[in-house]
Amino acid sequence: MKDRLEALRREALDRLQTVDDAAALNDLRVHYLGKKGQLTEILRGMGGLTAEERPIIGQVANEVRAAIEEVIAQKQELFDRAETTRRLQAETIDVTLPGKVPAVGAVHPLNKVAQEIEDIFIGMGYSIAEGPEVETDYFNFEALNLPKNHPARDMQDSFYITDEILLRTHTSPVQIRTMKEMNGRTPVKVICPGKVYRRDDDDATHSFMFHQIEGLVIGPNIRMSDLKGTLLQFVREMYGPQMQIRLRPSFFPFTEPSAEVDVTCVRCGGQGCRMCKQTGWIEILGCGMVHPKVLEHGGYDPAEVTGFAFGMGVERIALLKYEIDDIRHFYANDVRFLKQFARM
């Protein structure tokens, strides 16, 4: 049996020297050392040995196993190194190649401007109030001094769902809801951002859906001068400290007196250009003192408190801020347009 073990060692070592890949090496390992391998087969005959022979043959068998396993381990290490080298060569990175710039997202310009507006007014002590986009006729019109058949309703062609339910045409209903929630308490100092809907044809300056932010302040002795100072502060924080505003008389059913607010042309600085039609001024929003009837609908006594309100289109503010010439750019999802704002 000892001779058979020595012959097995020589045979295994000779064959291991010529093996040239990991799969063949594993096959030889199983052939010689596996549960049904050559070494196991020889050792099954140890039952016929004497007590003196068994430890001698056992020692020789262990030496044969150790010799074969050592060569197998050395070969396996060589094959592993070769495979690692092959993979490294196949996966070599050319560090001289130009890098790939990852696509970086950005806040949409309308959201960015809306956040800036909100931050400015929050810095002045305002809080944010929100309301439903599907509104009742009462909150959208009647509570704002626009009873049925009022001619001013023609100014806001609406999307009606039923005779009494519609998509809101402005965020002013939020003002009424806020006043009712306050239940006559003062001060009220809120801005109301949100989407609004009107039956307009889409063009460079109009859309059937757009964004508004309205403001409302109610308290004792609120004056028109407070309104003007607030809007001047807003304009200067939004467009720069050099900006000026002017108020022109206008009409809104829910404010009296009412005014349109113009701002110094952002392009020419008031010198006159094509953008401002040579006037030096550009209209940006409407405002006024809250109408007494609106105060009454909100649960306030016009004899005790007064208030002012203003409303602006976010798209209008953004068009001027970034000097964009077409409102439809905001909704076209054109990456060439939107990626410009990743750096702002």
Automatic annotation (TrEMBL):
UniProt subcellular location: Cytoplasm
Keywords, comma-separated and alphabetical: Aminoacyl-tRNA synthetase, ATP-binding, Cytoplasm, Ligase, Magnesium, Metal-binding, Nucleotide-binding, Protein biosynthesis
SUPFAM superfamilies attached to this UniProt entry: Class II aaRS and biotin synthetases (SSF55681), tRNA-binding arm (SSF46589)
Cellular compartments per GO CC: cytoplasm
Catalytic activity entry: tRNA(Phe) + L-phenylalanine + ATP = L-phenylalanyl-tRNA(Phe) + AMP + diphosphate + H(+)
EC number in record: 6.1.1.20
Domain of life, source organism: Bacteria
Aminoacyl-transfer RNA synthetases class-II family profile domain sequence ranges: 111-340
Cofactor: Mg(2+)
Protein family according to the UniProt entry: Belongs to the class-II aminoacyl-tRNA synthetase family. Phe-tRNA synthetase alpha subunit type 1 subfamily.
The protein, known as: Phenylalanine--tRNA ligase alpha subunit
Organism name: Cohnella pontilimi
